[in-house]
């Protein structure tokens, strides 16, 4: 839920760059996003309503070239905003968790996660 509330703000730079790729002006795109972001932010903070930034972008003709890109598969894909987190988790598991569990390998043989009691 929290991610969905913040994702539109996180995706603003991606929206700007998508506009630039479609021959839009970076300055104009930045200003348009800034205005829409402030409006959406006010709705969230002052009225307690959900973040409607994406809908505002979809209703602004300036952003028409990227309307089709405002999907979870493209510009609004949460995976675009996690940085190195997946690799860092994998590195942590390999460097810290697996060595810590290694002495207990025999006791864990055949045990599923639903059976482990801490």
UniProtKB/TrEMBL annotation:
SUPFAM superfamilies: L-aspartase-like (SSF48557)
Gene Ontology CC terms, in alphabetical order: cytosol
A Pfam family recorded for this sequence: ADSL_C
InterPro entries for the chain: AdenyloSucc_lyase_C, L-Aspartase-like
GO biological process: 'de novo' AMP biosynthetic process
Domain Adenylosuccinate lyase C-terminal, first and last residues per copy: 7-93
SMART domains the record matches: ADSL_C (SM00998)
Annotated catalysed reactions: (2S)-2-[5-amino-1-(5-phospho-beta-D-ribosyl)imidazole-4-carboxamido]succinate = 5-amino-1-(5-phospho-beta-D-ribosyl)imidazole-4-carboxamide + fumarate; N(6)-(1,2-dicarboxyethyl)-AMP = fumarate + AMP
Pathway: Purine metabolism; IMP biosynthesis via de novo pathway; 5-amino-1-(5-phospho-D-ribosyl)imidazole-4-carboxamide from 5-amino-1-(5-phospho-D-ribosyl)imidazole-4-carboxylate: step 2/2; Purine metabolism; AMP biosynthesis via de novo pathway; AMP from IMP: step 2/2
Origin: domain of life: Eukaryota
This protein's UniProt keywords: Lyase, Purine biosynthesis
One example GO MF annotation: N6-(1,2-dicarboxyethyl)AMP AMP-lyase (fumarate-forming) activity
Family: Belongs to the lyase 1 family. Adenylosuccinate lyase subfamily.
PANTHER family in the cross-refs: ADENYLOSUCCINATE LYASE
Subunit field text: Homotetramer. Residues from neighboring subunits contribute catalytic and substrate-binding residues to each active site.
Protein name: Adenylosuccinate lyase
Protein source organism: Cyphellophora attinorum
High-level lineage: Eukaryota, Fungi, Dikarya, Ascomycota, Pezizomycotina
